[in-house]
């Protein structure tokens, strides 16, 4: 029995050593990026703005499919070269220009009027745009779960990248518009894989939502409320272009 275990682990180690990890800079995947904001991200409506602070301009709310919502945003992107975002809300999607500085708002409103968007809502971001530098992040692809690719953000030195609460709203979407933080069920599958355990270890808490984390303890997943101001790694899942 011990000989069989030895052969198994030797084979596993050989597999891991021979496996070429796929890395990609975020910037190469970031063309026409659409941030997908978490549903629980609160963006209060405001009538006033400050030049140095950040805002989202809500240009539309639609109850059409996500694909149709993305088509709408891509139409806007043809005329407006500013960040764009969408947010699931009440069985539909809010479509935004942002996050953008208050100093850019007058120009953005002029551009919106030029393409037929005369009505919009100004929403205040809860915090200034994250200072995370995407050029310092690489995305490691390792394996699949439920036909989706598993993506692990790392720093260039190979260590797991750590993100704060605000970063969680956009880091996975910097891969592509359909990428999301892994679901609870996906974390369960990922953290039970021997190759994943070898790659990332078990000692980490990972972002599950913008205010909850998940970790594996023995054979169970344990969810906790994120500590105020803390940073954690996360795992993204998506379908990459072949």
Automatic annotation (TrEMBL):
Key words, A-Z: Signal
Residues annotated as signal peptide: 1-26
Protein name per the record: SPOR domain-containing protein
Source species of the chain: Photobacterium iliopiscarium
Taxonomic lineage from the root: Bacteria, Pseudomonadati, Pseudomonadota, Gammaproteobacteria, Vibrionales
């Amino acid at each position: 029995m011990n000989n069989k275990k030895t052969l198994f682990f030797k084979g596993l180690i050989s597999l891991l050593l021979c496996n070429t990890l796929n890395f990609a800079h975020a910037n190469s995947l970031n063309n026409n990026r659409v941030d997908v904001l978490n549903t629980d991200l609160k963006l209060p409506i405001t009538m006033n703005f400050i030049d140095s602070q950040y805002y989202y301009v809500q240009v539309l709310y639609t109850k059409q499919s996500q694909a149709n919502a993305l088509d709408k945003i891509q139409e806007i992107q043809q005329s407006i070269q500013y960040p764009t975002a969408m947010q699931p809300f009440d069985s539909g999607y809010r479509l935004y220009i942002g996050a953008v500085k208050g100093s850019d708002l007058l120009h953005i409103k002029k551009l919106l009027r030029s393409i037929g968007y005369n009505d919009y809502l100004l929403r205040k971001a809860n915090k200034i745009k994250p200072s995370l530098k995407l050029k310092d992040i690489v995305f490691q692809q390792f394996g699949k779960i439920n036909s989706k690719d598993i993506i692990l953000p790392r720093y260039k030195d190979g260590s797991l990248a750590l993100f704060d609460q605000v970063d969680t709203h956009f880091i996975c979407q910097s891969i592509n518009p359909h990428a999301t933080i892994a679901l609870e069920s996906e974390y369960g599958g990922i953290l039970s894989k021997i190759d994943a355990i070898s790659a990332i270890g078990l000692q980490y808490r990972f972002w599950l939502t913008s205010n909850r984390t998940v970790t594996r303890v023995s054979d169970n997943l344990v969810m906790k409320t994120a500590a105020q101001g803390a940073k954690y790694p996360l795992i993204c899942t998506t379908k990459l272009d072949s």
